Amino acid sequence: MEIIAHGIDLVDFPRIEEMVKRHGERFLSKVFTDAERKYARSNKNGTEKLAGRFAAKEAILKLMGTGWRGKIAWTDIEVVNSPTGQPMVSLSGEVKKISDKLGITQISVSITHTANFAIASAVALCHKDTKTQSR
């Protein structure tokens, strides 16, 4: 496997809290998948978990060089935990198409939190014999 791109993002919890207060379920369902919302609701620090997922999605869009635009939907990126707690990424829709075009075969993500912030780092990997097309 070869690293072909990296993205990082920092999100402060009050930003997410404000969006939830202002837009409620409309915001939550636009940005987070059912599984992500369920995970956040199952934790006493739900806002922290949502902020971490939001940061991961932003980091992934940065490593793809696209940002959030065009036909990309926030829910094209899903971050769930493995049984051991490691965040795992699943792509669909437009983000999956872009990922395939870039030759990305796996995205590894790490999320951490402080008292007020969540940070996520995402790394795009490809098989060494896979050629990425120009971005």
Map the helices and strands.
Elements: E1 2-12, H1 13-31, H2 34-41, H3 46-64, E2 77-81, E3 87-91, H4 93-102, E4 106-113, E5 117-126
Antiparallel strand pairs: 1-5, 2-3, 4-5
Quick gist of this model?
With 135 residues, the chain is α+β, with helices and mostly antiparallel strands.
What does this structure look like?
This protein is α+β, with helices and mostly antiparallel strands and 135 residues long. The chain has a single domain, classed as Alpha-Beta Complex (Ribosomal Protein L22, Chain A), CATH 3.90.470. The chain has four helices and five strands; from the N terminus they run βαααββαββ. It has helices at 13-31, 34-41, 46-64, 93-102, and strands at 2-12, 77-81, 87-91, 106-113, 117-126. Strands 1-5-4 form a three-stranded antiparallel beta sheet. A hairpin with a 3-residue loop joins β4 (106-113) and β5 (117-126). The chain is globular. The two termini are 19 Å apart. The model has no long low-confidence stretch (mean pLDDT 91).
